[in-house]
Specification:
This protein is of the alpha/beta class. It has helices at about 20-30, 40-45, 50-60, 125-145, 185-190, 200-210, 250-255, 260-270, 280-295, 300-325, 335-355, 375-390, and strands at about 5-10, 35, 65-70, 80-85, 90-95, 100-110, 115-120, 150-160, 165, 170, 195-200, 220-225, 230-235, 240, 330-335, 365-370. The chain is about 40% helix and about 20% strand. Helix 1 packs across helix 3 (about 50-60), helix 4 crosses helix 5 (about 185-190) and helix 9 (about 280-295) packs across helix 10 (about 300-325). The radius of gyration is 22 Å and the shape is globular.
Length: about 400
Amino acid sequence: MGTSHTSIRRGTAPPRLGDFNESVVLDAIRRHARGLSRAELAHSTGLSAQTVSNICRRLIDQGLARESGKQFTGTGGKPRTLLRVVPGARYALGVHLDPAVLTYVLLDLPGTVVVQHSEPTPLGTDAERVTEGMAASIRTLVDGSGVDTGRILGLGIAAPGPLDPDHGSVVDPPELPGWGSVPLRARLAAETGFPTLLDKDVIAAAVAERWMGAAADTRNFLFFYLGTGSGMGLVVDDTVLRGASGNAGEVGGLGAACSTRALVEEAIQMGALGYEFTPTGPQDARLGLAELARRARAGEQPASAVVRRWAIRIGRGVCAAATLFDADTIVFGGPLWPQMAEPFLAVIEPMVASSPFVKAVHPTTVTSTRVGEHVAAVGAACLVLDHTLSARPGSLLPR
């Protein structure tokens, strides 16, 4: 998958695991949990049987793949040997900086979460101290996993925008006071020693969904992220759209109206919540949202009305974006999505189905994330896996 503009610390980018053809073959094996035979690999990749055989030998020698199981063709011929990736051959770290919660994950080569940890984001603490704490938590996570650090490809960071990709900085994001132009990528790279990438949380989440989630079988989809803030990640023709400054995905007035704080404040104004739920910070806002969701599920009319209004706003936005970018799949996810999934989908699915534009040529699937509530942290690690494993046409150009 194309990942141009991903913020990578110069000189310390995670190493590529092979050339273009090796990446194509390894990615094909990774996508099939049951394994693929060499004949199937040649058919699916378009490479010659001899090229596939040579690449498979190299992948096995490197410990990235192994022969595992047999496939009987049903013609009475010799069974074919299946190849699978070796899960523990390589790993990737991911961290999600959310104004309310810090989440850390370690993924193996197929993208399975090996270990995960979450902790509240410190409030009223300067960014440098928070960064030091993040580095310490990463070291603790790695030490507790028992994984050989030499097998860890790198660290991916998912953070709220806006970002400065050239300098790897977080630039004064909402709900994170004191985080103006913080060189997060360089600090964590220096303090952990891992090659480090930085991307927006919504983009990282979209990468996770493409890598191992609900959008694994499509090349064109929209991911709507619901966390402390909200945003859209777009993948067109298997390429993540990042924009000129790496900050694509902000949804303007829709995003402002769809922050957790804004929703809770609106619920208070509409009488769906009492003033005791007035948020003083992102963690308070999450508690208020949880109570609003509980009341909506219980059928309380004021709460249901607020949630429905919010769902309609989002539905209009995703219908417009899906039409504009010709997406065939719309995926919803993020830390707060599990609380809102049922009432939101009840509103948004019919909106997409009845849109005069979205289904004009092809059906459009509306679904929830398969990655889980930690999709941004998982996506941060997937940035590393994608960077090191995915086939890149640019690698075919002469240097």
